[in-house]
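Hi Y.,

Following your request, here is the sequence exactly as I used it, all 524 residues.
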Amino acid sequence: MKTPAGRECEHFYGDYFRGRNVEECRLLKSQGQDWTRDLCKTCPVPEIARANSCQHMRLKVTVGRPFTAMFQRRVQITAFCEKTKRDVNEPQIGCGECHALPFKFEVKDIVARHLCRVLLHQRHKCRPTTMTLTLLLDLDDTLLNTNQPVFIPAYFRALAKELAPQVAPEIMMRALLSGMNLMNASDDFSHTLKEVFETVFLAQINVSPEKLEPAIENFYDNVFPTLQGLTSQKPEAKPFVDWALSQGFRIAIATDPLLPRKATYHRLRWAGFEPEQFEIISSFEHFYFSKTHPAYYAEVLGRMGWAEGPVLMVGNDMDRDIIPAQKLGLAAYHVDGESAAGAGDEARGTLSDLRVWLESMDVDSLIPSFKSVDSVLGILSATPAVMNGLSRGLDASLWSREPTPDDWALTEIVCHLRDAEREIHHLQIRLFKEQSEPFIPRPDTSVWASQRDYLHENGTAALKEFNEARRETLDMLKNISADEWNRKARHAIFGPTNFLEVVRFIADHDRMHIQQAWSLLKKL
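Below is the corresponding structure, written out as tokens. Let me know if you'd prefer a different format.
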């Protein structure tokens, strides 16, 4: 409620209904101090609350006549932190410890410190300490001359011929195109692209997967390799990749995951590489988004553990390689087949130009910026897909395993994500929808893991529940206007903020827990 001085203060109460004129400061009243309207004009409490709303800080107020105010009545404040058990000299800043721990995780100190680092980097624009460059490399017409206008029709005809004993070619072609279109459009983070494809493909051809599988396997083992003659190696591709690997760069083959793994591996070998050279290779068996979505690029980075260093997407297609990656907040290099000589600072050229470009620049400038609405929504969409992918096929006994006392088990991570989504993130979004300038609380989750006995829950069921909760979150965020994204608020940890920044905190929370889950699974 606004005070007589026109400032919002949670401690002021006024009742003016039907001619009443009841006013009081409940903070002063609770501490036996007399209040008058003139005190609100200079009272420091509203400004302290806007700057620091730490739940552990307690204010003690007295009304005095300090010399610095020419002996006029003033509200004077002292503060005490109930967590650290010490006086707080600067209430607007806090004790210096509580604010360094935005989210708390029981006794898992390593996780808490890491989350603090992630959030403070985002809020205060600090640079991360790990500067290894992550390269996302497109395959077709970037590392391999695929000549797709010729290759794709030949591929489809060969597949139709192989399946002709089971499916009429014209029916197969229609079903194949329908499946490809559905994969491109899909934003379903709970089903792989293969599952999405098969829902329409198998229904249209009316053949069981068991009957079709031998022909499919034979095609990719024996027929697909005969299409190699339609492609050719790029002379500069292998030297560039060899150099990048020698620099210690992490490399993902970020090819559109619309084809099976076997087809992708064949094309990589045609380009002169072995699949084992790369950290991850996207294919439709285990990816959930196509490259039409910024979420695809978040999915790739999540599957690599969301490293805290620079990232560069390299590809030849503006609509599927460059623009979606930039929407996520990544730097991108356009391989357009022409030398970049004379192009100034424009990030385009051949792969040979790319090496020169990287050697001449500070790669710190390629650190992603996940601040736009597109990037935040891309991360939020990709997180359940990443968690689904990382845990896919995991033995049930590994869900509850903690490799060290500092590690959370995967079940604990998933349960925390689920409950934070339901009980914190949904609440925060609703507050913005219901209030013009809400106070955004940050509940203490430190006791959840023990109180709720996460370790003995069913991890796969909890992950499904997290998927459902995140789908509800994304539904709540649909059709938010620019004005709504900029709506102001006061955060319990960071003070003054806005809706977009609060949702960015959710995305950062996602990234931290994916890092945690990825590191955990590497130890199992």
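The longest helix spans residues 410-434.

Thanks again,
Q.
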